[in-house]
Amino acid sequence: MSAEPSLQADIFPSIINLVPTRSQTSYTALPCNRELLFSVVVDNHCRIRGERLDTPAGAIKFPIDLIDLIVHPQVDQMGNTVVILYGEARYSPTEWVYTTQLRIKTGTGNRKEAIRLVDKGFFQIGKWLPPITIRVIDPLVKRIKLEFKFINQQFEYLPRFENGDVTLRFKDGSTLCVDKALLALHSRYMASFVHDAAQGATIDMGDFEMEAFRELLYQIYATRRPIETDLPKIAKAANAFKADIILSKLTAHIFALDMGFVQKMQFALFLELDQTLSELVYVAEQRGELTARITPQIREECTRWGITVPQLIDVMLRHIYPSRAIIPGRYFRPMMMFAEEHSLRRLLNSLGEMMLMEPPLTPQMMLDHLQLAHRYQHGNLFRACLLRIEGSFKTRVSQLMALPQFNDLPEAMRKEIVDRHCSGWALKDQHLAGLPTCRTIREVTLTKGGPPRSLLDKDDRFDSPDEMRSIEAFGSAHDMKMTY
Predict the structure, then answer these.
(1) What is the pLDDT of residues 290-340, one digit of tens each?
(2) What is the distance between the alpha carbons of residues 214 and 220, in angstroms, rounded to a whole number?
(3) The pTM is what?
(4) Can you say how many angstroms the Cα of residue 45 is from the centroid of all Cα atoms in its chain?
(5) Helix ranges (DSSP H) in 201-357
(6) What domains, with CATH codes, occur in the chain?
(7) Where is 481: in which H helix or E strand?
């Protein structure tokens, strides 16, 4: 570690590497592209000599006070030069943010030609801030001059925890000296184990890692270190040592994030922040975000099928978790309506798959299946209807089309229904209209084909469970001597 300088950044400007601009502008060439030259000027009166860096390769640093301004040109996919501009503190550990006016001037490689002001803005450069990116889209640009006027400089040395009235020893042998009064102020739990510690006492921290606790201390000591710097470590330490004030700060930070309620819940779960989860749920309930939306339509659908809303919720939860309990058929439609209202897409898909095994015995039931497939965008349910239209339901399709509500279906659905009714593969052979066969070994000749037949195949009493379920759901299959 470098020693901390004696001069403060916001009081004394650095005079090292500064040259009056009354002389000709000094440019620094890139190691990888000596045609592109850079110059940095601060406060209109000082230009800074650039120094080429080995790491990152091709970059130049311009020392400014307590930071190094890094100019790192790169090449994008289009072959254009992209200049990445950021800063690095010259001392550690520190936190810093500089606010500056920036003017960008460009010129050709001919030093006799003047450079022109092409861009300007008000920027922040900091340890945790994204870099400034400058794309050079004109190949004639060979000189770039960056002019800075710093408006605000925030630079803070983080505590090294070398002084304090107690010493914390960690499993790797590292130590942190802290003020036990500050620990006690932020956590009753920490207050309990430092209360009896004498001045200069050493406290064993067990297996807890030093880096996570140090991140917690940066927050306890009210440094400029942003709380989002390392949220997993801060949350781990704050949870372990019950630092209530820091836990409240973490909660406030998560509340302020620009993300949805579910994403915030998932983030809080990842960080194991029980307090944050409780407050998220409470606030969501107060705002109505978690209020179960039991619409009049859902209540009417429940009444139609002879069930109550609490019964519906109970059956739904038992199916979702933990037992995956089977849902009785009369719950399907009200639950699908509820799932759609609450954006429970996975449950909605599951219910649609269950409805595949509900045989539509009448034209009205088939129409109901088609309407559900359209309303909930359930492609598998619609495809099952088409398969039945080719097979077990083909004799009643004309009755289906005669229903007034049939014309309310989208035109594309109606066209596909008519097409499958007229030209479906299973119209001539209902072997193409059942459940998938498990008889995957087949035999073919010039005139016929199929699975090898045995004496048991001639006796329906030896049907497999899948075959019996297939007959129940789709109708019996009839062998055809000729297929098309």
Answers:
(1) 556 778 889 999 999 999 988 888 888 888 765 577 888 899 999 999 998
(2) 10
(3) 0.54
(4) 47
(5) 210-220, 231-240, 244-256, 261-271, 274-287, 296-304, 309-320, 332-341, 345-355
(6) 18-157 (2.60.40), 166-255 (3.30.710.10)
(7) none
C-alpha 287/C-alpha 446 separation (Å) is 72
| pLDDT tens digits, 3-25 | 433 333 343 333 333 333 333 45
Q: How far is Cα 381 from Cα 217, in angstroms, rounded to an integer?
A: 58
For residue 214, what are its two tokens? 């140090």
How many angstroms separate the CA atoms of 345 and 324, rounded? 16
Question: Which residues, other chains included, contact 428 with Cβ-Cβ below 8 Å and sequence gap of 6+?
Answer: 480, 483, 484
The alpha carbon of residue 40 and the mean position of all alpha carbons in its chain are separated, in whole angstroms, by: 39
- DSSP for residue 139: T
Tens-digit pLDDT profile for residues 74-95: 888 877 788 888 999 988 899 9
Identity (one letter) of the amino acid at 404? Answer: P
Phi, psi of 111 (to 5 degrees): -65, -20
**Angle value at C-alpha 411, between 410 and 415, nearest 5 degrees:** 125
Enter the tokens of residue 273: 């922040």
Collect the ranges in the chain with pLDDT lower than 70.
Answer: 1-34, 44-46, 285, 288-292, 321-323, 428-440, 443-450, 455-484
List the one residue out of 75, 32, 24, 74 whose CA is nearest residue 52.
32
Question: Would you say 59 and 86 are in contact if contact means Cβ atoms under 8 Å apart?
Answer: no
Handedness of CA 39, 41, 44, 46 (dihedral sign): negative
Closest CA to 59 of 72, 49, 48: 72
Look up residue 407 and give its two tokens: 């014309």
